[in-house]
Structure formats: C-alpha cells, structure tokens
Design goal:
single chain, 10% strand, 4 domains, Rossmann fold, two-stranded antiparallel ribbon, alpha/beta, elongated
Length: 512
C-alpha cells in the first residue's frame, strides 16, 4: 500500500522524534525547513540536543551527506569549504577539495554560527541562499537541503545581519523542564534513527513538493491576517524584510500542501511565531497577537464590535431625536406656560421674581391707576404685608385665605414672552425604517454565519491540530480557549444587534 505524502511525512516525523524530550517543535521545524528549502536557527545553551536534531534530520533523506562544524573567531575557510587542491595549484588553478565538507553536504550543523568571520561570510551566504559555491573559477551547484545552525547568543554587528536573515525559521531551545526531567533520566542508550527507505525523501521528492506547493492557494482571510501582522510588527519595531514575507508565504504553502490541503489556513500561521522575531522575547507578543485573531474570518475581530457599537449609537440618536410638532393643518405648534398648544410664537404668563415666586397686582380697591407697583408687582407675602400695614389687617387676613384671588390670572402681573417650540419624537418614513432594518439584518446574518463557522472550527479543532503535521499538539487547548472566547463575544454582539433591530422597528412612523 502506497502512503500519501502526509502519512509518509507523519511517520517520518514521529520516527525522528523518538526519545527526544521536549524537542517536538524544533524537530518539526527542521523537517519543514528542509521541505521548503529554508534553514533553521536554534538559540540556546550547550547540551540541549541541538546537534542531535540536525543529525536526525539527515536520516529523513536518501543518500544525504552530513557535515558538522563548530565555528570560532579563528575559523578559516578550509574548515568549512575544504583545503586547497595541491594538484590544482600545480596547474595554476585555485580549487578546493570539497568532498566531505560543507559544499558537498545535504544537511549541515553549524555551531556558534555567528562566530563566522569575514573570510568565510560571503561564501557562506551564497551557499545558504543560492545553494551554490564558488570553487575557483567555477560556481557549482551544491546538494544542500538544510542548514541547522546554533548559537548561544544573537549576532552582534551589522555585518552579521545578512547571515541572520538567511534563517527563516528560528527557535529558542531551553533546558529540559522539571516535568520532563524524569523522562530524560529514563533514557537508555542513544537512539539511532533508521526510517524505512520508503519513508525517506529523495531530491526528486523535494523538487516535486516545492513545485506543487506553489499551486496552493492563499485565501483572503490569510492575506488579511498577514497584512495585520505586518502592521503589528512595524508598531512593535520588529523589522521584517519584504523578501522574508515572500519566503514566509511559500513556507505556509509548503506546510499546507504537505498537510494534505490545497489552500493555506489560518492555523498554518501558527508557524509565524518562529519566523518573525529578531529577539527571543519578541516571540511571545507575536504569538499572543496571533492567538487573539486566529479563527477570525477578518483580519480584525474588533470589526463586528465597532459596527455594532456604531449602530447602537445611531439608534440612540434617532430614538432621542425631536422635531417641532404641527397641527392638523401643518402649522408649527408652540408650548404655552399652561402646557397647552398654540400656533403663535408669542404668549403671556405670570412674571416671577428672582426666587421664582409668581408676582401679583395690587387689589383694585386700593389702587385703580397703577396696580403693577411701578411694574415690579408683589409677591404673595409682599402684597399681604402691604395691605396689612397700609390699609386693613382684616382685609389682609381675608386675602391670605382667598384661594380664588391668587388663582385668578386677572390678578397676576403679566409679561410677554416667546413661546418655546412644542417638540415631539421625530417620525421616520417607512423607507427609512426598512432601510435600517435591512442593513442591521444583513450584519446580523454575517455574525450568524461567523458564529456557525466558529462552532464548526471548535468541533473539529482537536482533529485539525492533532493531525496537523507542523503544529505542536498542545496548541489545541490554547486555540479552543481562544475560539470559545470569540464565540462568546460574538454571541453577545448578536444579542445586541437583535435589540438594535427591535429598536429600529419601534421608531415612530410618519403618516404618508
């Protein structure tokens, strides 16, 4: 029975992982880097199995030569590229004997890579990038599949930036955790990977994978995710070159193709945390950003929240909107002091003093010429005191009890004033209301579709991630928690939009 490419790689990957403790991710990355024609950089202290993973990677390929070297500041080109050929020199030719050295290797491990000096740097860059080596006057093709490089520290100096950028995949390797330590002590002997021959990859296999991967589609939601991530990296001052973004896209295509799909998914973008950082401490912010957005159809999960908030604000504005009331003939109405409507803008009312007390006229029997007290009027107590002190105590007492006097507008000090507009809730045309309802319903439909998609992703999540060739299985719990958070957020948005829809439906209608 012929295995599919995914099953073949799955078996090969698991074989290479045998007896490796807490090295699942870098081993996966090294194999994926090889398939995509890229290189892997491992950052970490000595004794953390970095060279072991490179040696195991060699076993994934048929007839693969392996080369390993520790670089120092004093390393010379001969250590990497081979000694000069004495016979060639005798023939006035400058040529190296490359057999057994880096130019003849399929898989190489270069320890302390950033100790590389200027004497070997240019040739190393050409070999890493173009898989070519200048041997004397000839530029020859090399069989190099992948270089796994290691370093205890990051490069220091601009002259090493180009070398650093050649490693598309980067992974920090730490000592075994306390949880994994007993398993480490339980290992007996050194495992020698010997994958079955039909699992191992040939140069033809690699060429076909890379050719077919170019046909893998990159859908809009992945493009939008990459665009948003690029903005995030710029904001975090994490420089990522245009060349690197192009290589990342191809890496995602290879990941999807080898995982048995003809389209990249957002889950493949889990790999981005190992492609974008320049310092190890930058990986967590990149990964946190990714976790908060993976599973979203759009680049920004906040999109629905912003639109929903905008419609809530619009509804509130239209509910609180007021317009001037009209009578049945279409005349504008004004509000009189007594609360009744009027069609004229001018009205009369009882004047009040600074304390808000209504002012009254003098009793007609005591002053028939100017009852207004010189236009100032009297408050109730002022008028009673005036009658009591100037005219009659009995009449003052009688006036105090005379409710009808105080309620009779003929006894008030009257002033002219501009009547306020009589306002009423704005009435909307049926077309306006239906337009609002239609737009909100369409948005609600989008959210419902999004919720259905989230539910499907949650249902298939364990299968998707556990069976994914390149994602570490532990990510399924993180992904599920994130998807469930997104689900809850958008269920709340759906409820809010339902209220908005009901609110627009309840707006008062104009009579047309």
């Amino acid at each position: 029975m012929t295995l599919s490419l995914k099953d073949r790689l799955h078996a090969l990957r698991d074989h290479l992982l045998t007896d490796l403790i807490e090295r699942d991710t870098p081993m996966r990355l090294s194999l994926l880097a090889s398939l995509a024609g890229e290189h892997l950089l491992l950052i970490g202290p000595p004794g953390t199995a970095k060279s072991e993973m490179a040696k195991r990677l060699r076993a994934a390929f048929r007839d693969a030569n392996y080369f390993e070297r520790l670089l120092t500041r004093f390393s010379v080109p001969e250590e990497l590229f081979g000694p000069l050929s004495i016979k060639a020199l005798e023939e006035d030719r400058y040529q190296r004997q490359i057999s057994g050295y880096l130019p003849s290797a399929s898989v190489a491990f270069l320890d302390e890579i950033f100790k590389a000096n200027s004497a070997i740097l240019n040739s190393l860059l050409t070999l890493l990038n173009e898989r070519e080596f200048d041997n004397g006057t000839q530029r020859i093709k090399t069989p190099l599949i992948c270089v796994v490089a290691a370093s205890n520290e990051l490069p220091d100096g601009e002259e090493l930036d180009a070398l650093y950028d050649r490693f598309l995949l980067r992974c920090q390797v730490l000592p075994i955790s306390e949880a994994g330590f007993p398993s480490l002590l339980g290992l007996r002997g050194a495992f020698q990977p010997q994958p079955k021959l039909d699992l191992r990859l040939s140069p033809e296999d690699l060429a076909q994978i890379r050719k077919d991967a170019l046909l893998v589609g990159v859908p809009t939601d992945v493009i939008e995710l990459l665009k948003a991530l690029r903005i995030f990296c710029n904001a975090q001052q994490i420089p990522v070159s245009d060349r690197r973004w192009r290589k990342i896209q191809f890496l995602l295509q290879v990941a999807a193709y080898t995982d048995g799909r003809n389209e990249v998914s957002q889950w493949d973008c889990w790999l981005l945390q190992h492609c974008l950082w320049n310092k190890p401490e930058q990986r967590d912010p990149i990964f946190d950003w990714y976790k908060s957005r993976v599973g979203a159809k759009e680049a920004s999960p906040e999109r629905f929240a912003k639109i929903t908030g905008a419609w809530e604000k619009t509804l509130e504005g239209e509910k609180n909107s007021k317009t001037q009331a009209l009578d049945r003939h279409g005349n504008p109405l004004f509000l009189q002091a007594n609360g009744k409507s009027a069609t004229v803008a001018e009205g009369q009312r009882q004047r009040a003093n600074d304390q808000g007390e209504g002012l009254f006229l003098m009793l007609p029997e005591y002053n028939t010429r100017d009852r207004t007290n010189g236009g100032k009027g009297f408050s109730k107590e002022e008028l009673i005191d005036h009658i009591e002190s100037r005219h009659s105590s009995n009449r003052a007492q009688q006036l105090r009890r005379d409710t009808a006097f105080w309620q009779d507008s003929a006894n008030w000090l009257i002033e002219q004033y501009t009547l306020p507009l009589q306002m009423e809730p704005t009435r909307y045309s049926e077309a306006h209301v239906q337009g609002r309802l239609s737009t909100v319903a369409a948005l609600k439909k989008d959210i419902s579709s999004y919720l259905d998609d989230l539910q499907r992703q949650i249902s298939s999540l364990n299968k998707t991630i556990v069976e994914h060739l390149w994602i570490s299985p532990g990510f399924s719990q993180v992904a599920q928690a994130n998807l469930e958070t997104l689900l809850k957020q958008h269920q709340d948005l759906d409820k809010r939009l339902a209220k908005v829809h009901t609110g627009f439906g309840a707006l008062p209608r104009s009579e047309q």
